[in-house]
C-alpha cells in the first residue's frame, strides 16, 4: 500500500546537508521596527560622530556590551488545530529582538505569517502554552475541559499572553525569570538567583526558586516539592534550592527532569496538583490549628516575596515584623477562615469571567502576590473593600494572607552517584522514545562524556505513578527520535548513523558524518535533522532482493543501486531467526484481496501492530464487506472478524459506515484506494447515505458525504424549536430579530450549501416584513407641508403593496424549518405597514386620513402571513388539537392570521388532528377568513380520500351540492369559492361522476334573477374549472361513465363561446329566469368561463400527448380570429397545450418560438424601432400583445416541465427571455405592447425560471428578483410583487433543502433521450448543424444504445440481486464492459438513482 500513501511508508530517504533558514528571519528584515536598526548598523562610526556629536557617541557606546546578546531563536512544532488535534502543517515561533513571529506552512503550501507581535523590551523567551478555562482545579478537569491556547512572550519585567481568540493579558513579574516552561497546567517559572542577593538569616526561610501560574488572571504561586532523597525522607517544602535547574519538561506524561549543579546529578519529578495536606504543611497550618511560630514563618515568606517583587532586599523589608506579629494574633483565633484586608484593591474581585483588559496593566508585582482570582480554599470566601483604599495603604495592611501553592513536583528517580563524574555533566538534549514493543525510554545526552543515557519507565498498574528502571549508556555524539517508526537515530563516535529501537542496536545506515551532530538543539540550529540514506541498503545486505525490487517499483528515485557496501557479516545471516509471518516474497495486498474474491484459499495476511496499520485497515474493510455480503468465514493474523459478522445486507447498511469510521477510515483513505478495491466500499457507503441513522457521530456523516447531518449532529443537544444561532445572538439585538419569522432557519446547513457569499442574509433582508420601510420623498419648494405629507403617504402605500406580498415568499423560504414546543404558541411575525422618513426618522402611517386607502386592504396579506408562519412547522412535529386551539388569538385583528395558520396546518397534514367539535365552533362563528382557511385546510389534509364527513362539510357551503328543496343559506361568495376548490382537493384524481357533473355546470353558472351570482363570477368559474381539473386529473379520454357529459366539448364551448346549452340536473329551475342586472342573453360569456375551462382541459389531459385536444388550444392563425381572443387568454391556451403535449417540451428558444403562429412571427415588430410600419389590415398592438403572451405561456410550461431540475439548457433559455422582457420595458415602442403586459410576461417568466432553479439559490435569478424588488412605482401592483417574491421564495425553497436533484444533467438526458435522441442521430448523420444541447443529447443517446438492454442478456439471475457488489460478481460471467453495469444497475436493483457518487 506504500505506493498510495507515501507519507506513512517506513522507507527512510537521505539527502545532502542543507542549511535551515527560519521563515521569521526574512520577515523581520522587512518589519518596520527593523528599519532604523539596519540603517544605524550600516552607518560608519565617523558619520555618527559628525552627525550626532557627543550624543551620537554616547548612543553608540550604549549599544556596546561585553556580553554577547542572544540575537535570534526559534522553535518548531507539528501543527495543532483549535480543538487540540494534530493537522497537516508545521508551525514556527521565531524570536528576534522585540519581535515574535508565528508562522504556519505545509508540504503543499509555503510558510506564511499567522500572527506577529512587537513588545516594548527585548524578548527573552517565547513559547506556546495552553491554559485551562474551567475554574475546576481537579486532575480530571485537565483532560476534559476546554483550553485557551496562547502565545506567551517573556520580557524582563512582565510576561505577555495572547490567545488565538484575540484576548490579551499582561502579568507583571515579581522577580527576574531565568526560564519559563509550558506545562499541562499552565506556566512554570524559574527564578534567576541574583549575585547581590543576601542569604536569609535564621528568622527567615529561603525564598522559592520555582513558581507556577495556571491562568493569565491567576496569581503566581510558589512550587511545592515532595522529596524522599534530595531533601530528606518524605519532606514537603517549597523548591528553594538554587542548584536545581530544569533541563526538560514533558506534558504527557507530566514529568520534569532537573540537574543539580552541585551534586552533578539528574533527577526526574512528576508534576501534579498540590494536595490539601501538602498545602497545609507548607503554609504551616495543621488540621487542629496553627502555632504562632509556624504562622510567623509563613507570613515571613509572603513578606519576603512581596519585598522581593518591589526590588528591595529580602532582609531589608520594613513590613516583615509587623505582618508576622499580626499573623500570630490572627492564626490563634481562626486558622482556617480569614477575611481580606480592607485596603486590598478592587482587582481582588476580578475573575476569569471578567474582561482580561480591565485594569490588568495597572497592578504591580506586589499586588499580584497580594491578590487572588479564585476561591481555592475556605480561606478565600469573604471579600471586603474600603472606599479609602489605595496602593500605598496595602503595604500597611493589618492582615497578610499567605500565597496558596497550586502545583507540586513529586520525586520519581535520580541517577546513581558514581565515583568518577565530571563537574559539567549537564545534559544538552532530552527526549522520550519508544521501541517496537511499545516500551518507553527517557533518553538524555551528556556531550561531555559522549554518552546517551536511556532510562526505561512504565506506568503502574493503577495508572497513578511512573516506575523507572535501570539506566543504559550508549556511546554517542548525538541522537534524535524517529517517532513514526518507533526508533531513534544515534550518531556514534566513529561517525556512523545507527538506528536503535529502544536500547537495541538495529541496522547501520550507509552514510557517514564527520563531527556534525544530527540535530543541533541550540539557539542557532542550522543543520537539517534527518539526512539519511535508504533502508534498502540493509535489505540488500540481507539478500532480500524481492523486497528491494518491491521498494524500487514504488520509489525508483529514492533507491540507489550503486556504491553500496555491505556492512553485515554474510556468515551471520544464516543464523538469523525469521518470524512466522515472514515470506520470501513481499506480501501483496492486491493479490490477497483478489484471491479472496475468487474464493481461493489464502494464508492469513501478515499484520504487525504499529507497522502495517494501513494494510490492516484495507484488509479489514474489504473482508468485513465480503463477510457481510457472502458470510465468508475468514480470519487473519491478530484480526478476528468473527465477532463482527452480521449476516444480513440490511445490517451492512446500518453498521458498515460506523464500523469504517471507528477504524479510522476517512474519505482521504478511500480516494487513495484503487478502483477495484474502492468500488464495493463506495457501494456500501452509497446505501448508507440514503437512510442514515439519527445518532451517527460527525465522523460517520463526513465519511458518507452528509455534511448537513454532521452539522445537525453537533446541534443535537439543542432543544427543538429553538434557533441554531439563538444562543449566539447578543441580548441587544435579540428582540430586534426575533419577529422576522426566519430565526429558525438552520444557518449551519445553509452555510454548507452557500458558503462563498452572503446571499442567505440578502434573502432574509428582502423577505422580512416586521420592520418599518424607508420612505424617501424629496420635498420640492412648490410643495406645501400638507401636500408633502400626502406625497409621503402615497409613497408608503406603494411600498405597502410590496410589503403585503412578502409573506408568500417567506413561507416558501422557511418551509418545514420549525419544530414547535407544545407549551409555547407559534410565533407569527408582524406585518408592519408603517414607514420611517429620513432624516429625522419620523413615522409615516396610512391611518391619518390624508389619502384614500382601500378598505380591508390587509385582509389577504394577514391571511398569507399566517399561512407562511404555519408552513414553517415540519410534518414530523408532534402537535395536537389542544395546541391548535391554544394558538387562537385573543384579539380580533389577528383573526385573519389565524385563518391562514389553519390553512397551513392542512397543507402540512396537521389539521387532521383538530377535533370535530372545534371545527364546528370555528364555522359557527361566521368569520369569513376563518371559514376559508379551515375549509381549504381540512380539504388539503384529506387530499384524494373522498372522505364523506369532509364532503358533507363542504357541501353545506356549495348550493349546487344541496338538495333543491333545502333552505337557502347565506354563504359568502369567497367561502363558496373555497368550498369548490376544497371539493376538488378531496376528490383529486378520483373521476367521481356526480362531482364532475356539478363542477362542469358550475363553470358556466349564469347570474341569478336578483343579485345572487352577479359579483365576482370570474373567481367562482375559475375555482370550478380548477376543481374539475383536479377531480379528473390526468384521466384524459378515459373518463369512465362520463361519455354522456361530453366534458371536453363542453369545456371547449366555455373556452371559445357560443349559445348556452340547456341547464340539466336538479337545479335547472333556478336558472330559468334571466338576470335583471346582467344582460348576457343565450350566449356564453367567455370572459368569465374561458380561464377555468382552459385550465380544466389542461389538467384533465395532462401529459397525455393528445394532439386532438391540443389542436383546440392552438393560438389563432388569422388576424380576424385574433381579435376575438384576449391576449391574456392566449397565455393560458399556450400553457394548456404544452402541458398536454408534455413530451414535446424542449429547453431551447427554438421550441418556445415554435408556439407562435406564423402570422404573428412574420408581422412581429422590433420594439427597438423608432418608426412603426403602417398597415390597415394588421393591428400591431394586437399582434405584439399576442406575441409576448404566447412566449410567456410557453416559458411557464417549460418551468413546469423542468421544475427543480436546475437544467442548464432550460435555465439559459428562460434567462434569455427574462432579459429580453426587461429590455423591452425600456424600449422606445414599449407603449405598443403596453408596460402592464410586459410586466405581466416578465413576472411569468421569472416564476418559470425560479421553478427550474428551485432550491438552488442561483445568483443570476437572485439578481433579477432583487432588481424587481426595488421597483415600486409605475405599473407595479400587488400581483406583480406577489409573483416576484414567490419566485424569490421558490429559489430558496426550504432553505435549499428541497427540489435539489443531485444528478441534474444525467436525469435530464435520460428523460430527454426518448423525445429527441432519434432526431439528433438523423441530423448528425445527414450533416445538418445543431445546437450544443443537442450535441450532448446525441452523446448520451449513443452511449445509452451502445449498452445492451436487460432483456438482451442471458438469464443468470441478475434480477434477484440486492446490491451493486453482488451484481459485480454476477456480471463478471458475461464479460461485459463496466459502462453496461453502470447503466443496468439502477434498473436491475429497482432504484432510479445513479450509482456514481
User: What is the makeup of the main sheet?
Assistant: 6 strands, mixed
Q: What oligomeric state best describes the polypeptide chains here?
A: single chain
Question: How many beta-strand runs?
Answer: 29
Query: Helical content, roughly?
Result: 25-40%
Strand order of the largest sheet: 14-13-18-17-16-15
What would you say this structure looks like, in words?
- This protein is an alpha+beta fold.
- It contains 47 helices and 29 strands.
- The strands form seven sheets. It has a six-stranded mixed beta sheet, covered by helices on one side. A four-stranded antiparallel beta sheet has the order 1-2-3-4, covered by helices on one side.
- A hairpin with a 5-residue loop joins β1 (72-80) and β2 (86-96).
- α38 runs parallel beside α41.
- The chain is elongated.
- The two termini are 24 Å apart.
Task: Describe the structure using short key phrases.
1397 residues, disordered C terminus, disordered N terminus, four-stranded antiparallel sheet, alpha+beta, six-stranded mixed sheet
Amino acid at each position: 500500500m506504500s505506493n498510495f500513501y507515501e507519507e506513512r511508508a517506513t522507507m527512510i530517504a537521505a539527502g545532502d546537508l542543507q542549511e535551515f533558514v527560519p521563515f521569521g528571519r526574512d520577515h523581520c528584515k522587512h518589519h518596520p521596527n527593523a528599519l532604523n536598526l539596519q540603517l544605524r548598523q550600516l552607518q560608519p562610526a565617523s558619520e555618527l560622530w559628525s552627525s550626532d556629536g557627543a550624543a551620537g557617541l554616547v548612543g553608540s557606546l550604549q549599544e556596546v556590551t561585553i556580553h554577547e546578546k542572544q540575537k535570534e531563536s526559534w522553535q518548531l512544532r507539528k501543527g495543532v488545530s483549535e480543538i487540540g488535534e494534530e493537522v497537516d502543517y508545521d508551525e514556527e515561533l521565531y524570536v528576534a529582538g522585540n519581535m515574535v513571529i508565528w508562522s504556519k506552512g505545509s508540504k503543499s503550501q509555503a510558510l506564511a505569517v499567522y500572527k506577529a507581535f512587537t513588545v516594548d523590551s527585548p524578548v527573552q523567551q517565547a513559547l506556546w502554552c495552553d491554559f485551562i478555562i474551567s475554574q475546576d482545579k481537579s486532575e480530571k478537569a485537565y483532560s476534559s475541559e476546554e483550553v485557551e491556547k496562547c502565545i506567551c512572550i517573556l520580557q524582563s519585567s512582565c510576561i505577555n499572553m495572547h490567545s488565538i481568540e484575540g484576548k490579551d493579558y499582561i502579568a507583571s513579574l515579581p522577580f527576574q525569570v531565568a526560564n519559563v516552561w509550558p506545562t499541562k497546567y499552565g506556566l512554570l517559572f524559574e527564578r534567576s538567583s541574583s549575585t547581590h542577593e543576601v542569604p536569609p538569616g535564621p528568622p527567615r526561610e529561603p525564598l522559592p526558586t520555582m513558581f507556577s501560574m495556571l491562568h493569565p488572571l491567576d496569581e503566581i504561586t510558589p512550587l511545592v516539592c515532595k522529596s524522599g532523597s534530595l531533601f530528606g525522607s518524605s519532606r514537603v517544602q517549597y523548591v528553594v534550592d538554587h542548584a536545581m535547574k530544569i533541563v526538560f519538561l514533558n506534558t504527557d506524561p507530566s514529568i520534569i527532569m532537573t540537574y543539580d549543579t552541585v551534586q552533578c546529578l539528574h533527577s526526574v519529578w512528576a508534576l501534579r496538583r498540590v494536595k490539601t495536606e501538602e498545602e497545609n504543611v507548607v503554609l504551616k497550618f495543621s488540621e487542629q490549628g496553627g502555632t504562632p511560630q509556624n504562622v510567623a514563618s509563613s507570613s515571613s515568606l509572603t513578606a519576603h516575596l512581596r519585598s522581593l517583587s518591589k526590588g528591595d532586599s529580602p532582609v531589608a523589608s520594613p513590613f516583615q515584623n509587623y505582618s508576622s506579629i499580626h499573623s500570630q494574633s490572627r492564626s490563634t483565633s481562626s486558622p482556617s477562615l480569614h477575611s481580606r484586608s480592607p485596603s486590598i484593591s478592587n482587582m481582588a474581585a476580578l475573575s476569569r469571567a471578567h474582561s482580561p483588559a480591565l485594569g490588568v496593566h495597572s497592578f504591580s508585582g506586589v499586588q499580584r502576590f497580594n491578590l487572588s482570582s479564585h476561591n481555592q480554599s475556605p480561606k478565600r470566601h469573604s471579600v471586603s473593600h474600603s472606599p479609602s483604599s489605595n496602593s500605598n495603604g496595602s503595604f500597611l495592611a493589618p492582615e497578610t494572607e499567605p500565597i496558596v501553592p497550586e502545583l507540586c513536583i513529586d520525586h520519581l528517580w535520580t541517577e546513581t552517584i558514581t565515583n568518577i563524574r565530571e563537574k559539567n555533566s549537564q545534559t544538552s538534549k532530552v527526549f522520550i522514545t519508544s521501541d517496537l514493543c511499545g516500551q518507553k525510554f527517557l533518553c538524555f545526552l551528556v556531550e561531555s562524556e559522549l554518552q546517551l543515557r536511556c532510562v526505561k519507565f512504565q506506568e503502574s498498574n493503577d495508572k497513578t505513578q511512573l516506575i523507572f528502571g535501570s539506566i543504559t549508556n550508549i556511546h554517542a555524539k548525538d541522537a534524535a527520535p524517529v517517532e513514526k517508526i518507533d526508533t531513534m537515530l544515534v550518531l556514534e563516535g566513529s561517525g556512523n548513523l545507527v538506528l536503535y529501537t529502544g536500547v537495541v542496536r538495529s541496522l547501520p545506515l550507509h552514510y557517514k558524518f564527520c563531527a556534525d551532530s544530527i540535530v543541533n538543539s541550540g539557539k542557532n540550529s542550522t543543520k537539517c535533522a534527518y539526512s539519511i540514506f535508504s533502508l534498502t541498503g540493509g535489505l540488500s545486505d540481507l539478500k532480500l532482493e524481492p523486497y528491494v525490487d518491491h521498494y524500487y517499483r514504488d520509489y525508483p528515485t529514492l533507491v540507489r543501486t550503486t556504491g553500496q557496501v555491505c556492512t553485515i557479516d554474510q556468515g551471520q545471516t544464516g543464523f538469523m531467526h525469521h518470524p512466522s509471518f515472514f515470506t520470501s516474497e513481499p506480501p501483496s495486498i492486491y493479490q490477497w484481496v483478489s484471491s479472496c474474491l475468487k474464493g481461493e484459499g489464502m494464508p492469513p495476511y501478515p499484520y504487525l501492530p504499529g507497522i502495517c496499520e494501513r494494510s490492516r485497515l484495507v484488509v479489514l474493510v474489504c473482508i468485513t464487506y465480503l463477510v457481510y455480503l457472502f458470510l465468508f468465514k475468514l480470519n487473519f493474523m491478530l484480526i478476528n472478524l468473527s465477532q463482527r459478522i452480521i449476516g444480513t445486507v440490511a445490517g451492512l447498511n446500518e453498521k458498515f459506515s460506523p464500523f469504517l469510521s471507528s477504524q479510522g477510515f476517512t474519505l482521504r483513505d478511500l480516494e487513495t484506494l484503487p478502483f477495484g478495491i474502492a468500488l464495493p466500499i463506495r457501494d456500501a457507503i452509497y446505501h448508507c447515505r440514503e437512510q442514515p441513522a439519527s445518532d451517527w457521530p460527525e465522523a460517520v456523516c463526513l465519511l458518507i458525504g452528509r455534511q448537513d447531518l454532521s452539522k445537525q449532529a453537533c446541534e443535537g443537544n439543542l432543544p427543538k424549536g429553538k434557533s441554531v444561532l439563538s444562543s449566539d445572538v447578543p441580548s441587544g439585538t435579540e428582540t430586534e430579530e426575533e419577529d422576522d419569522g426566519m430565526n429558525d432557519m438552520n444557518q449551519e446547513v445553509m452555510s454548507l450549501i452557500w458558503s462563498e457569499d452572503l446571499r442567505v442574509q440578502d434573502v432574509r433582508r428582502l423577505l422580512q416584513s416586521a420592520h418599518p420601510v424607508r420612505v424617501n420623498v424629496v420635498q420640492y419648494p412648490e410643495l406645501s407641508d400638507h401636500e408633502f405629507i400626502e406625497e409621503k403617504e402615497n409613497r408608503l402605500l406603494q411600498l405597502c403593496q410590496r410589503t403585503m406580498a412578502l409573506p408568500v415568499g417567506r413561507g416558501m423560504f422557511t418551509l418545514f424549518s420549525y419544530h414547535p414546543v407544545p407549551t409555547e404558541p407559534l410565533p407569527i411575525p408582524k406585518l408592519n405597514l408603517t414607514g420611517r422618513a429620513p432624516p429625522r426618522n419620523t413615522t409615516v402611517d396610512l391611518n391619518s386620513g390624508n389619502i384614500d386607502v382601500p378598505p380591508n386592504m390587509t385582509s389577504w396579506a394577514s391571511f398569507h402571513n399566517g399561512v407562511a408562519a404555519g408552513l414553517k412547522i415540519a410534518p414530523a412535529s408532534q402537535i395536537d388539537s389542544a395546541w391548535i386551539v391554544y394558538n387562537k388569538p385573543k384579539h380580533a385583528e389577528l383573526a385573519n392570521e389565524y385563518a391562514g395558520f389553519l390553512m397551513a396546518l392542512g397543507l402540512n397534514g396537521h389539521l387532521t388532528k383538530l377535533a370535530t367539535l372545534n371545527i364546528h365552533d370555528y364555522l359557527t362563528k361566521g368569520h369569513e377568513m376563518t371559514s376559508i382557511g379551515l375549509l381549504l385546510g381540512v380539504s388539503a389534509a384529506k387530499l384524494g380520500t373522498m372522505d364523506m364527513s369532509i364532503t358533507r362539510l363542504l357541501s353545506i357551503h356549495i348550493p349546487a351540492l344541496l338538495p333543491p328543496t333545502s333552505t337557502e343559506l347565506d354563504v359568502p361568495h369567497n367561502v363558496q369559492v373555497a368550498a369548490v376548490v376544497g371539493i376538488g382537493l378531496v376528490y383529486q384524481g378520483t373521476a367521481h361522476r356526480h362531482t364532475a357533473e356539478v363542477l362542469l355546470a358550475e363553470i358556466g353558472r349564469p347570474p341569478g334573477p336578483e343579485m345572487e351570482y352577479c359579483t365576482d363570477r370570474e373567481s367562482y368559474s375559475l375555482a370550478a374549472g380548477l376543481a374539475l381539473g383536479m377531480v379528473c386529473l390526468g384521466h384524459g379520454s378515459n373518463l369512465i361513465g362520463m361519455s354522456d357529459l361530453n366534458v371536453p366539448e363542453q369545456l371547449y364551448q366555455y373556452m371559445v363561446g357560443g349559445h348556452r346549452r340547456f341547464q340539466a340536473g336538479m337545479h335547472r329551475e333556478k336558472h330559468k329566469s334571466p338576470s335583471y342586472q346582467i344582460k348576457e342573453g343565450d350566449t356564453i360569456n367567455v370572459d368569465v368561463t374561458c380561464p377555468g375551462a382552459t385550465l380544466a382541459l389542461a389538467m384533465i389531459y395532462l401529459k397525455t400527448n393528445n394532439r386532438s385536444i391540443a389542436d383546440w388550444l392552438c393560438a389563432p392563425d388569422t388576424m380576424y380570429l385574433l381579435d376575438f381572443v384576449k391576449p391574456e387568454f392566449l397565455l393560458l391556451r399556450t400553457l394548456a397545450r404544452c402541458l398536454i403535449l408534455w413530451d414535446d417540451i424542449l429547453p431551447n428558444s427554438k421550441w418556445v418560438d415554435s408556439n407562435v403562429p406564423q402570422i404573428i412571427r412574420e408581422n412581429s415588430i422590433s420594439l427597438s424601432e423608432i418608426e412603426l410600419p403602417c398597415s390597415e389590415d394588421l393591428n400591431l398592438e394586437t399582434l405584439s400583445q399576442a406575441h409576448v403572451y404566447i412566449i410567456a405561456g410557453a416559458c411557464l410550461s417549460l418551468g413546469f416541465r423542468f421544475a427543480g431540475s436546475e437544467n442548464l439548457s432550460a435555465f439559459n433559455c428562460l434567462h434569455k427571455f427574462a432579459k429580453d422582457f426587461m429590455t423591452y420595458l425600456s424600449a422606445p415602442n414599449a407603449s405598443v405592447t403596453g408596460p402592464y403586459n410586459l410586466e405581466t410576461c416578465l413576472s411569468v417568466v421569472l416564476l418559470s425560471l425560479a421553478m427550474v432553479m428551485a432550491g438552488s439559490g442561483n445568483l443570476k435569478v437572485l439578481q433579477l428578483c432583487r432588481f424587481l424588488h426595488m421597483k415600486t412605482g409605475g405599473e407595479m401592483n400587488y400581483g406583480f410583487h406577489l409573483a416576484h417574491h414567490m419566485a424569490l421564495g421558490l429559489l430558496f425553497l426550504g432553505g435549499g433543502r428541497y427540489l435539489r436533484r443531485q444528478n441534474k444533467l444525467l436525469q435530464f438526458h435520460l428523460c430527454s433521450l426518448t423525445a429527441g435522441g432519434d432526431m439528433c442521430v438523423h441530423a448528425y448523420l445527414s450533416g445538418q448543424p445543431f445546437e450544443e444541447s443537442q450535441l450532448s443529447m446525441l452523446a448520451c443517446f449513443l452511449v445509452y444504445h451502445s449498452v445492451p438492454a436487460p432483456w438482451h442478456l442471458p438469464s443468470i439471475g441478475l434480477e434477484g440481486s440486492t446490491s451493486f457488489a453482488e451484481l459485480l460478481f454476477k456480471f463478471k460471467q458475461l464479460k461485459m464492459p463496466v459502462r453496461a453495469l453502470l447503466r443496468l444497475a439502477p434498473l436491475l436493483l429497482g432504484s432510479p438513482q445513479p450509482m456514481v457518487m
